[in-house]
Structures are given as C-alpha cells and as structure tokens.
Amino acid sequence: MAKKIYPDSGVELTEFTAKHYDKLMNTASFGLYQRFIRKAVKAIGVKPGDQILDLGCGTGRNAALMAKNLSEQGSITGLDVSEIMEKQFNEKFSGDSRFRFIRQRIDIPFDLGKQFDKVLISFVIHGFPHEVRKTVINNVVKHLKPGGTFFILDFAEFDMAKMPALHRFVFKTIECKYAFDFIERDWKEILGEYGFGDFTETFYMMKYVRLLQAVKKDQPADK
Ligand SMILES: C[S@@+](CC[C@H](N)C(=O)[O-])C[C@H]1O[C@@H](n2cnc3c(N)ncnc32)[C@H](O)[C@@H]1O
After folding, report:
1. What's the structural domain count of the chain?
2. What is the pLDDT of residues 52-107, one digit of tens each?
3. Residues 137 and 14: beta-carbon distance below 8 Å
4. Which of 77, 126, 189, 196 could, after both became Cys, cross-link 179 (CB 3.0–4.6 A)?
C-alpha cells in the first residue's frame, strides 16, 4: 500500500483488505453485514432519476444496491483514493454508463463541476481527524443541490465507557483512534452549522451504527 495520508486511520486500507473488502466484511460479521447493508441502503430511498455521489465508494457494493432503484436517467459517481477499489468498481459496472468512478481524495477540496441529489459517505468519515472531516463536509455542501440529502452511514454516537466489556474490547481492538473521537461528537449539531437540517436517524447493529440523513437547507459560507 502507498504511504498512509493519516497514519492512525483505519479507513485507508491495506492492499489485502482492499482486494477482499466485501468478503472480509461478510466473514468478520458472520454474515450479518450482508443483511444490514441491504436494509441500510434501502433506507436511503433512492429515486429512479437520482444523481448520487458516493464518497469513499470502495468496491461499489453500496452503489450496486442503490442501483436497484435507479432508472436509465439516474447516475452514481463514486470517489475513492484506492486503485484497487477503482478496479473492482469498474469491473462491477463495466458497460453501464450510469456509473462513474473518479480517483479522488475526498479529504481535500475538490470540484466536480456539478451538484447531486444525494451524497453518501459510508464508513469513511469516522476515519479522519476532525479538522479533515470539516473539509469533507464542505465538499458535500458544494456538491449537494439545495434540498438534497446527505447520508452518513457510520458509527452512531455512544459512550464507550458504557459499552458491555466485550463490545468495548472488540470496538477498541478493530477501530482506529479517530473513531473513538467520532462517536463522542454531536453530528446533528455539527451538520446544523453547515446549513443542514430535517435530520432522520435509523439505527442498526444494536444501535452502534446509524444512517443519519441531513437535508441541505441553505448555502452557508465555507467553514
Ligand atoms: C472502510 S472502506 C468503506 C468503503 C465503502 N464506503 C463501503 O461502505 O463499503 C473506506 C474506503 O474509503 C476510501 N478512502 C480512505 N481514505 C480516503 C480518502 N482520503 N479519499 C477518498 N477515499 C478514501 C478507502 O480506499 C476505502 O475504499
């Protein structure tokens, strides 16, 4: 793997993990992940003509699930930093012009020159330092249409000290230190500062995981 951008991050994957990411998620969760991700993506409520941006799209697994509701007019643009993910994404959707992969870091400002109906970030944003997350959110604000929805599928807000000992052990063992900070923050308040509102939350995996939906209300200045 190329040198990590953030040495403490768990979302910059090793070559092996990137290559086998979907299988590893299924196996490590004893098959639970498959059922969970189908339900969570269904809750996004993709409409046939949606233009969707998927930040840190990985193999395109979520895109493939979202595509079930997409018409010929809809599209999914996946952004990811990994060449291995790019290959898997492009193999999955080869010949289907509704899908586009762009090798792009999402932790630095970028401009795709268009706005989307929905922006999804799934199990990526927890893996950045908090200052960097703000750049990611500014990228979302720039690329979402007014009235569009931002979906964060990631860990929910919870107190590690109150977790049952076994859950805490597993979480502390597999997760990176940025995740410990992510779960302590009030994400509705943070997103509110960027002009988001009308929040909807759906919880999964014993409430350790949440799909947070946030509607872009107005266009605040970059924060
Ligand atoms: C834990 S995986 C999640 C993949 C996918 N979103 C999913 O839910 O299946 C994290 C993904 O984020 C990508 N990633 C990590 N850092 C990134 C960055 N700075 N810019 C863009 N993508 C990044 C990784 O290459 C990887 O595909």
Report:
1. 1
2. 999 999 999 999 999 999 999 999 999 999 999 999 999 999 999 999 999 999 99
3. no
4. 126
